[in-house]
């Protein structure tokens, strides 16, 4: 089974459901709740903004279109979900429906997933002449777009109209108006889904001209007001941003400034200079829309993708805010949705290379993982506990590695289990979480540490133990298929858990909880 786009207006108007995919789509995960935004570095502390990724790669629908596995373990995957708020699946087909793997991976991280409605050039002009001059066609198109989003379980649409709208051909009735179409789609999506988002792309003006503005102004603000947000074109300069701030007023976070990874007539040239564009965008408290983030794969190649991807996202960390889980249960082995084998409980279940984004699990904050471990943490597919991959850690000195930020209340005794596997010498293995306690004196951050293993009572691990508010020993220990399993009983905690950290010393792989 596969997810495919609709390439014509006729295909949209005649759409009558997903066929044999109906029951499968019902099983896609809903949009999970997530923690409030957290700045990990000082540059963006106290600011409010959003980050969008617009995924455009070879016109879409490659290995990712399949609902089940393929054998191409090198296919593109995205793992920096904690840093973004919205994911747009983009192609140049008329109606781009996000494949179910992207919906699943986005939703488990609390990220909205949008499709794209795009029209271009003369063909696009003809399509809109047809829609806007026939009330019945307009109504059917609107209804089907809403139903498609509901059926395929995604949150909304990017409206990308890259053709002129000829006002001489339009009749005067309100139903024919493009503003009406944008507004109705936005409102109808919100009625069906309170988390919906419809974004207007900065291309067509209120006069029907195809004229990119690169800013929010009198030529596109009517569309901005009709939708939830606007995606500005990429060829902006700092003056464009200043004027956008003045026009947006209280809606700064609804203005996504376009960032082109390919650097086409773009500020500072894109690529590994993309962070320079983010720096100036955040200077004005504006949101950012990162277009073609797969540049690190499509241009630089699959062989060094993992390294190049982390170089890119590490450079963006000062200008990002991060989210994480806000509810239980929480389960992950950090599988990215690919592998050389499929593991279950540390044992090979199925051998052979595979790729399936439906199998991607909650990811750590890779930027923090690499920075805090001095790039001595990686993904390995040689072993895994569940899925196709796990973290591989090698640190000589005791290190705290922040894996997740979160906001989770522990109101009952809670079981916490993790698994690890030694590939060398383990001196210390622990897992910690911080929790904030509010009192008359303000917020006080405390730490609970779960010590799975330590070989030196007076070693560096003891220093970590001394700093902890609460130290827990395993409630049970087990060994399974060369993996060490440790289970802790977490007591009721005042305040909310706000992060999870791994505290290793030695060479080993992990985990499941």
Automatic annotation (TrEMBL):
Name of the molecule in the record: Cytosolic endo-beta-N-acetylglucosaminidase
One GO CC term on file: cytosol
Major subcellular site: cytoplasm
Domain of life: Eukaryota
Function: Endoglycosidase that releases N-glycans from glycoproteins by cleaving the beta-1,4-glycosidic bond in the N,N'-diacetylchitobiose core. Involved in the processing of free oligosaccharides in the cytosol.
Keyword vocabulary terms for this entry: Cytoplasm, Glycosidase, Hydrolase
Localization of this protein: Cytoplasm, Cytosol
Entry EC no(s): 3.2.1.96
Family according to the record: Belongs to the glycosyl hydrolase 85 family.
Catalytic reaction(s) noted: an N(4)-(oligosaccharide-(1->3)-[oligosaccharide-(1->6)]-beta-D-Man-(1->4)-beta-D-GlcNAc-(1->4)-alpha-D-GlcNAc)-L-asparaginyl-[protein] + H2O = an oligosaccharide-(1->3)-[oligosaccharide-(1->6)]-beta-D-Man-(1->4)-D-GlcNAc + N(4)-(N-acetyl-beta-D-glucosaminyl)-L-asparaginyl-[protein]
Gene: Engase_1
One Pfam family from the record: Glyco_hydro_85
Record CDD domains: GH85_ENGase (cd06547)
A GO term for molecular function: mannosyl-glycoprotein endo-beta-N-acetylglucosaminidase activity
Domain (Cytosolic endo-beta-N-acetylglucosaminidase TIM barrel): residue spans on this chain: 62-341
